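Input.
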Amino acid sequence: MIPEIIAEFGQLFAIARVRWARLAPQLHPELRGPDLLMLQTIARKGPITATELAQLLSTDKTLVSRQISRMRQLGLVDAVSDEADRRVVLLSASAEARRTLGELHAHLSESYERRLAGWSDEDLATFRDLLHRFNATSPVPEAEGPAARCSARQAAEQGERPAIRPPL
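Output.
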């Protein structure tokens, strides 16, 4: 059963990569598929540090830094120093990126509504709940250094418990 599930995820990820590559230039002509994934993550999780972003996406921080630099030049990502620790730079999607991503998400919602049109409300709820349950078990590496302190402070400010690192 697990090999079949892995195969289905492989198919899903392949479709997603093609979709990101196709949709990215619609946001900006110089945007590529991996940029779109990163920008969507920044919009959903931001403000976020480059270290946290690299860990969420399981990507090298130097690659993230290069992509962020380019997206900042394109006006898609804003960066500000954290007030509590000026060494920490917080990234967020620009107003233009949020507007364009909103249009993109509306288009994607229409596509998903068509694909799921024959599903019952019960099936949709089960699908959502199972995806949520699966995603909730996914380990997310923790940030280290100043970025980790910033993350812990932000979590506390939002009434969340900061992630606790297990002993080594």
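The longest strand covers residues 77-81.
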